[in-house]
C-alpha cells in the first residue's frame, strides 16, 4: 500500500431495563413533538453518553491512577484485561491460514475457521473448516433474518476498485482476515448471537452449501413476524431515548467519515512524499563520488534519508492496515444500528395502528386482541435488545478506539524517534570533519602563507 509492489499470497446476557413509557401516552407524545418542552432524564442520559464518546479529554489521568510509563505499557495493560476476560469464556473462534484457489470460472480466497468450545451444543471440543467471503455473508444474512432485534456486526466491504487494490495481495488478504476474525469474535462474545443455530452450522459443517440451499426454512418466529411487517404503518414519533440514539449515530458516522477522508488524503500525500525521498537520498550518494573530503558526510546524509524513508513507509502501512479498517468498520456498524432502529420503528408503528383501531371500537371495555398483545411483546423485545446491544456496542467502541488512538500515538512517536535518531547519528561525523579542518588551519607553517 505504500508504493512497494504487493507480495504474492502463499498458497453476557441482556441487562435488566427500566419499564418504558407507553408509546401512546400523552406526555411522551407531547415531549416528542413539543419544541419548548424540557428534555426528559432519559434523553439527557442518552445524549450524555453520546457527548462523552464524541469528545476526547485534553489530558491528565483520573485521580488515584498512575500515569503509564509509555503508550506500550497501556497497550499491554489493555491486552491483559482481555486475557483475564478470556478465562471465563467457553467459545473461542479464530480465522487464519488464507489460501488462494484458482478454478476455471473464478479465483477466490478461503480462510481456516478453528473453533474450540465446551458448550453442549457442540458435539466435538474442536472444529476446523474452511470458508470464503460469501460464506461469511451468508452467515450475516441468516443472523439478520433470525435475530432481527439484535445488532449484527458488519462485514468488511466486499468490493474493491479494480486496478487500484489487488484483492489477492498479501497485504489486502491479511487486512480482510483480521476483519473477518473480528467479525466472528464479536458474534462469539454476544450472549444471544453466539447460540444461534446458523452460527453453529457455520462453525461446524464441512459442506455449508447443503445448508445454503435450505433457503428461508430456518427463520425464527420473531424473524417471521418482523419480516412481514409492511410499510403501511407510519410511526407517529420515535421515543426520545431512541431519537437520541439515532441523532448520535448520524453525528458519529459523519465524524468518522470526515476523519476517514482526511486520513486517506494524508496517506496519499505520505506515499507521494515517500517516492520523492527515495529519489532524493541517492542523489547525495552519487554526489559523494565527486567529492573527496565531503564523501563521508554526503554518504551519511544519504543513509539518513534512507532510514527516514523506511520509517515513513512503516507509518503509512500502519495507518492503511490498522487505522483505516477500524474507522470503516464503525461506519458500517452505525449503518447496522440504524437498520435495527428502523425495524424497531416499524414494529412500534404497527403496534400504534392496531392499538388505535381497538380504541375506535364503540365498546365500554374493549378487550385487547391477542395480535395486539403479541405486537406489544415484539416491541418490548426490540426495545430491550436494542438498548442492551447499544450498551455493549458503546463499551466495545470505547475499548477499540482507546487502543486505536494509543497505537496511533505510539506509531507516530516511533516514527519521529527514528527520524531524530537518524539525523543525530550524522552530527558527530560532521563535527569530526569540522575539528579536523580547524586543526589544519592552526598548524599551517608561516612560510607557507
Provide an overview of this structure.
- By secondary structure, this protein is mainly α.
- The protein has 2 domains: 137 residues, Phox-like domain (PX Domain); 200 residues, Up-down Bundle (Substrate Binding Domain Of Dnak, Chain:A, Domain 2).
- Helix content is 61%, strand content 7%.
- It is built from 12 helices and 3 strands.
- Strands 1-2-3 form a 3-stranded antiparallel beta sheet.
- Helix 5 packs parallel to helix 10.
- It is elongated and about 105 Å long.
- The N and C termini lie far apart (61 Å).
What key phrases describe this protein's structure?
three-stranded antiparallel beta sheet, mainly alpha, single chain, 449 residues, 12 helices, disordered C terminus, Substrate Binding Domain Of Dnak, Chain:A, Domain 2, PX Domain
The biggest sheet amounts to: 3 strands, antiparallel
> What is the CATH superfamily classification of the largest domain?
Arfaptin homology (AH) domain/BAR domain
SS summary, helix count: 12
Mean pLDDT: 77
Radius of gyration: 30 Å
Task: Provide the structure class.
Answer: mainly alpha
CATH fold node name of the largest domain: Substrate Binding Domain Of Dnak, Chain:A, Domain 2
Write the element-wise H/E pattern from the N-terminal end onward.
HHHEEEHHHHHHHHH
Name the helicity range: 55-70%
TL;DR?
This protein has 449 residues and is mostly helical. The protein is built from 12 helices and 3 strands; from the N terminus they run H-H-H-E-E-E-H-H-H-H-H-H-H-H-H. A 3-stranded antiparallel β-sheet has the order 1-2-3.
Amino acid at each position: 500500500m505504500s508504493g512497494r509492489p504487493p507480495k504474492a499470497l502463499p498458497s453476557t446476557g441482556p441487562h435488566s431495563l427500566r419499564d418504558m413509557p407507553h408509546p401512546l401516552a400523552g406526555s411522551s407524545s407531547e415531549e416528542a413533538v413539543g419544541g419548548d418542552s424540557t428534555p426528559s432524564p432519559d434523553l439527557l442520559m442518552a445524549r450524555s453518553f453520546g457527548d462523552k464518546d464524541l469528545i476526547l479529554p485534553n489530558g491528565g489521568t483520573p485521580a488515584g491512577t498512575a500515569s503509564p510509563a509509555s503508550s506500550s505499557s497501556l497497550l499491554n495493560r489493555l491486552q491483559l484485561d482481555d486475557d483475564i476476560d478470556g478465562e471465563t469464556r467457553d467459545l473461542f473462534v479464530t480465522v487464519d491460514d488464507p489460501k488462494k484457489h484458482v478454478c476455471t470460472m473464478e479465483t477466490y480466497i478461503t480462510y481456516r475457521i478453528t473453533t474450540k468450545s465446551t458448550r453442549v451444543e457442540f458435539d466435538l471440543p474442536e472444529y476446523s473448516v474452511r470458508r470464503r467471503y460469501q460464506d461469511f455473508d451468508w452467515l450475516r444474512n441468516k443472523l439478520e433474518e433470525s435475530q432481527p432485534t439484535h445488532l449484527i456486526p458488519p462485514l468488511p466491504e466486499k468490493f474493491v476498485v479494480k486496478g487500484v487494490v489487488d484483492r489477492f495481495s498479501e497485504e489486502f488478504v491479511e487486512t480482510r482476515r483480521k476483519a473477518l476474525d473480528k467479525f466472528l469474535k464479536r458474534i462469539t462474545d454476544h450472549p444471544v448471537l453466539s447460540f444461534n443455530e446458523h452460527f453453529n452450522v457455520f462453525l461446524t459443517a464441512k459442506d455449508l452449501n447443503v445448508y445454503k440451499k435450505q433457503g428461508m426454512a430456518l427463520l425464527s418466529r420473531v424473524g417471521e413476524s418482523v419480516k412481514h411487517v409492511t410499510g403501511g404503518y407510519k410511526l407517529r414519533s420515535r421515543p426520545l431515548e431512541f431519537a437520541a440514539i439515532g441523532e448520535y449515530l448520524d453525528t458519529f458516522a459523519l465524524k468518522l467519515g470526515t476523519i476517514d477522508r482526511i486520513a486517506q488524503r494524508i496517506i496519499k500525500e505520505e506515499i507521494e512524499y515517500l517516492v520523492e525521498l527515495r529519489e532524493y537520498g541517492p542523489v547525495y550518494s552519487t554526489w559523494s563520488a565527486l567529492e573527496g573530503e565531503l564523501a563521508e558526510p554526503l554518504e551519511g546524509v544519504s543513509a539518513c534519508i534512507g532510514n527516514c524513508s523506511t520509517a515513513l513507509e512503516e507509518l503509512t502501512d500502519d495507518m492503511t492496515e490498522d487505522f483505516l479498517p477500524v474507522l470503516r468498520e464503525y461506519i458500517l456498524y452505525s449503518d447496522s444500528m440504524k437498520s435495527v432502529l428502523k425495524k424497531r420503528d416499524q414494529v412500534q408503528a404497527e403496534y400504534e395502528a392496531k392499538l388505535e383501531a381497538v380504541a375506535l371500537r364503540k365498546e365500554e371495555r374493549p378487550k385487547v386482541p391477542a395480535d395486539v398483545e403479541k405486537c406489544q411483546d415484539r416491541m418490548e423485545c426490540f426495545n430491550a435488545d436494542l438498548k442492551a446491544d447499544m450498551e455493549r456496542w458503546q463499551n466495545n467502541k470505547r475499548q477499540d478506539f482507546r487502543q486505536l488512538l494509543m497505537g496511533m500515538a505510539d506509531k507516530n512517536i516511533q516514527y519521529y524517534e527514528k527520524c531524530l535518531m537518524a539525523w543525530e547519528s550524522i552530527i558527530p561525523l560532521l563535527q569530526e570533519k569540522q575539528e579536523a579542518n580547524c586543526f589544519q588551519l592552526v598548524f599551517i607553517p608561516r612560510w607557507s602563507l
